[in-house]
Design the sequence.
């Protein structure tokens, strides 16, 4: 329910209604239905205005959702609205350019309908915003930003801009305000940063052949390259088979002639025809000729992890807690698993008349998710370092790894479960 008529006090305030804050709010509201839990979501950005009538956009940005994320969106009651416009990943083809190792992860072998899905970000945003507007168990206010947080013995006092009420108190503040959180800086919560000296080049590409639900992860001596299947782009009579490229490239000061040839700055500067030629050379011909490459953008690759995830009355969720590089496609997927664990614990606490901001409740959240977070961060970090390294010993190691994965179903199963966001879930143990 969108509102400007806010109360002076809430049980839970969520600062930030991006993909993570919005999904968390809806999951929490669903689990806490009719329980009287008072939840307010504030987002600094005005609600998305584009409508379903807006034409298709060749360059629309997208996100890979794991099978595990589908289950979470089902739990939140959002999957039926998302399923219509989403592309299923049936197979993942993993290969190493110029080497012998290759493996294929197949949904039918895993006994699931799909290994994951690719959703356009604006469609995800549209579904979340519609659901937030319709939800009667939540109060949503946007644009409105949390300007200042004053921690208190029983939660936090917030100073708000744009909500028609300047001060609101909450028993728990969920910080979901993204990777450049001004609120964390204000609270003195610092971030551990690791730079990879690489950039991710993002671009949608058209191929002569249909991808048939295949995603490609291709490792090359100048960096890994992922191609996700996207829905065809149809404009008039023209139909283009689209893939979403995430290409990791060295910064321009990379050493070695190939690294310089395929540096991020150089790939950005090339005219389209030459860019297509370079990409085709690295990606190969599995989907035929590349006929078009859309707008390109660069994201510096780094790993940022907040040094504290909880304080009395405060918890961090999403990019503010951990920003992973986009190559492994795990950032949102991990955050959704965190969101589910937190929502379940908060609803349990509420039903037992516990303070949602109490440290034992928040510690139970950290205990439930720290293993998953550590494993996902290590998985993303390791794949990036291992597969973007041209050293012969490492190249041999990864080739053997790919071969062994194909020969040893349990290893393949482990890799697939990790990619699917289905790594063994630790049970959410309520606070003691
Ligand atoms: C190129 C790229 C590709 C990616 N691909 C994948 C993928 O395939 N799969 C995957 O799982 N992940 C992927 N990710 C990661 C994923 O996009 C992020 O994990 C996710 O978007 C994080 O969302 P968030 O809500 O935490 O942060 P944000 O999206 O940054 O949202 C933060 C929100 O907080 C609001 N806000 C900020 N300050 C305040 C304030 N003071 N008060 C109120 N509101 C405030 C902002 O308006 C914003 O709406 C990718 C990331 C990139 C960059």
Sequence:
């Amino acid at each position: 329910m969108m509102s400007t008529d806010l109360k002076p006090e809430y049980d839970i305030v969520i600062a930030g209604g991006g993909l993570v804050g919005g999904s968390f709010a809806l999951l929490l509201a669903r689990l806490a239905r009719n329980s009287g839990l008072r939840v307010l979501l504030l987002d600094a950005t005005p609600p998305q205005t584009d409508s379903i009538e807006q034409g298709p956009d060749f360059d629309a940005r997208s996100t890979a959702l794991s099978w595990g994320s589908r289950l979470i969106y089902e739990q939140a009651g959002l999957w039926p609205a998302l399923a219509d416009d989403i592309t299923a990943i049936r197979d993942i083809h993993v290969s190493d350019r110029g080497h012998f190792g290759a493996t294929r992860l197949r949904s039918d072998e895993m006994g699931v309908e799909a290994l994951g899905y690719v959703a356009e970000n604006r469609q995800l945003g549209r579904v979340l915003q519609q659901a937030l507007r319709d939800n009667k168990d939540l109060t949503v206010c946007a644009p409105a930003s949390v300007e200042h947080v004053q921690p208190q013995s029983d939660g936090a006092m917030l100073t708000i801009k744009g909500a028609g009420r300047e001060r609101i108190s909450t028993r728990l503040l969920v910080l979901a305000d993204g990777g450049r959180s001004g609120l964390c800086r204000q609270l003195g919560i610092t971030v551990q940063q690791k730079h990879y000296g690489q950039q991710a080049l993002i671009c949608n590409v058209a191929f002569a052949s249909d991808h048939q639900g295949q995603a490609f992860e291709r490792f090359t001596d100048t960096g890994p390259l992922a191609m996700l299947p996207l829905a065809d782009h149809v404009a008039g009579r023209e139909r283009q088979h689209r893939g979403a490229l995430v290409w990791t490239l060295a910064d321009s000061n990379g050493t070695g002639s190939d690294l310089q040839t395929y540096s991020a700055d150089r790939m950005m500067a090339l005219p389209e025809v030459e860019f297509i030629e370079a990409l085709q050379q690295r990606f190969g011909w599995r989907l035929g000729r590349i006929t078009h490459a859309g707008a390109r953008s660069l994201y510096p690759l780094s790993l940022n992890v907040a040094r504290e995830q909880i304080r009395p009355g405060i918890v961090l969720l999403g990019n503010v807690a951990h920003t992973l590089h986009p190559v492994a496609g795990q950032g949102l997927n991990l955050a959704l698993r965190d969101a589910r664990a937190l929502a379940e614990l908060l609803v349990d606490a509420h039903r037992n008349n516990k303070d949602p901001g109490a440290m034992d409740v928040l510690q139970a959240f950290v205990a439930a998710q720290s293993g998953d977070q550590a494993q996902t961060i290590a998985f993303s970090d390791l794949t990036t370092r291992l597969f973007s390294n041209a050293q012969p010993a490492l190249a041999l190691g990864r080739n053997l790894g790919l071969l062994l994965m194909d020969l040893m179903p349990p290893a393949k199963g482990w890799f697939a479960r990790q990619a699917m966001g289905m790594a063994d879930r630790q049970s959410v143990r309520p606070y003691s």
Summary: Residues 194-301 form a domain with the D-Amino Acid Oxidase; Chain A, domain 2 fold (CATH 3.30.9.10). Residues 15-21, 42-45, 63-64, 145-146, 176-178, 182-183, 200, 202, 299, 318-319, 326, 329-333, 335 surround flavin-adenine dinucleotide (CB under 6 Å). The chain has a mean pLDDT of 87.
